[in-house]
Structures are given as C-alpha cells and as structure tokens.
Amino acid sequence: ARAVVAAPVAGVVERVLVSPGVQVGAGGGLVLIRSADGALVSAEAVAAGAEAEAAQAALARESRLLKEGVTARQDFEAARAAAARASAQAAAARARVAASGSPGASGQATIRSPIAGLVTGVQVAPGGFVAQGAPVAEVSDPRRLEVVFNVPADSAAKLKVGAPLSLIGPDGREVAARIIGLAPLAQGTTGAAVVRAQPDRDGLTPGAAVSAQAPADDRGLPSVPSEAVQTLEGRSVVFVAEPG
Predict the structure, then answer these.
(1) How far out from the chain centre does Cα 94 lie?
(2) Residue 224, pLDDT score
(3) Paired residues of 12 in beta bridges
(4) By the number of CB atoms within 10 A of the CB, which of 21, 71, 111, 166 ranks highest?
C-alpha cells in the first residue's frame, strides 16, 4: 500500500513531474533526472549489443564454412563460445540499464512509481543532486491501506480473524474495519500480539496513528470503560450513580 521510491542512479534532478496530493498510476513518472552514470551504462549496453551481433554474424559464417568443409570444427566451436559469451554480456548490460531506470544515451531517466496511488511526499527539487538509493517520492494506495497494532495477550485471546473493529483516526472520525491477520505472542518480550485490520472504506491517512475498539461479545453483558473499574477489598468493582 505504500512505496518509497528511490533513485536508481545518482544524478541531477531536471524536472519534478508530480506534487503531493496527485494521483499516479503504476509506472507513472515521478521525477526526471540526468545521470552521467546512466549515460555510461546506456553506452555500455549499446556496445555490448553491437559485439553480440558481430559475434552472431561470425558464428553464422563459421557454421556455413563448416558445412562446406572449408573451416575446422575447432574454429566453429570457438566462434560459438564467443557468440554465447557476447550474448550473455549483452543481456547483463541490458539488465543494468533496466536497473538504472532505462536511461537514454544522454543519461536522462524517468523515475517511475511501482504502484498506483496518491503521492504523499516529494523529497527532491529541480536542480538538486540526488544520490543513488536516495528517496525521491512516496506513493500510497488508500484502497490497500492496512492498520497494524499491538494488543496485550489477554485481549488478543478474545479476537479472531474476521471480527469487526471500529478505528478512530486522529481527527476523531470512526471507520469500520475487519481483522484480517492475528499473530499471537509476536512480541516475544511483552507477549503482545500483532493484529492487522483492513478498513471498509477510505478515510484514514497512511502513516497516521489510530486507535481501535472491539465490540463486546454477544452474551448480552454490560461493558464499562476500563478506567471505571476500581479495586475495593481485593475485588474489582464499579460504582454506579443512583438518585440521592
């Protein structure tokens, strides 16, 4: 649901194609950079491709001469090994280009979003330099948002996958959710469980802190806030206001 997009190569930011709050599709452009390293990788890929073509042509020639009985099999085997080596080098060079953001001959490359969603942050500006691996933007997909929180072991024992929850956002707005994952004793030091819930609709901000309430069981028992429970003579009691 959330992607932190980093620069595949170091370079200078030429253009920022989005701003926070803009919707982008999977593969949509975020930032345009120009990289000397990208230009070098692109040039190496072109050279490796040319060498692979030349090696394939030499192999075809040796194969034809072998059939005509003009060349020795040893020369044909050497040409075949050279063609295989050149093809592997060309494939590796193409993989480096793809990993570098597919820069052109000038080193210009577009950094793209791996997911569709909402741009929640942009960390670069035109004219600035971005290092390889440095984040340039963040994208979140509210439709795939999940809420993750820790629950004490005794409370987690009362929860189950599929049970409803009520999520309360920072602004006090409530959003219905359903438990989709429950890992008992996931926190070894505290014995707490990790619970994952999925909201039924949009309304929560990715990265925000929320609280959750689970409804009481269906046995018809009354419930009170935990702070209303007091200890009196070793027993847990509550005080109820009555007339007079």
Answers:
(1) 24
(2) 85
(3) 34, 129
(4) 111
Residue appearing with tokens 């890929």:
45
Dist. CA 72–CA 53, nearest whole Å: 22
Give the C-alpha separation, 144 to 111, whole Å. Answer: 23
| pTM attached to this predicted model | 0.61
What is the pLDDT, as a whole number, of residue 206? 73
Please answer whether residues 137 and 119 qualify as being in contact, where contact means their C-beta atoms are separated by less than 8 angstroms. yes
Note the maximum CA span of the chain: 119
pLDDT at residue 188, as a whole number: 63
Hey, what are 70's tokens? 């003009």
Mutual angle of helices 36-67 and 73-99, in 10-degree steps: 160
CB atoms within 10 A of CB 199: 20
pLDDT value at residue 156: 81
Structure tokens at 159: 């929860």
Q: Kindly write down the DSSP assignment for every residue of 127-141, as one continuous string.
A: T-EE-TT-EEEEEE-
Rounded CA separation 204/143 (Å)? 10
- Please, where are the H alpha helices in the chain? 36-67, 73-99, 153-156
Point out the residues of the chain with pLDDT beneath 50. none
Spatial strand order in the sheet of 174-187: 147-151, 192-199, 174-187, 164-168, 211-213
pLDDT digits (tens, 9 = 90+) for 134-176: 999 999 887 788 899 888 887 888 888 988 888 888 888 888 8
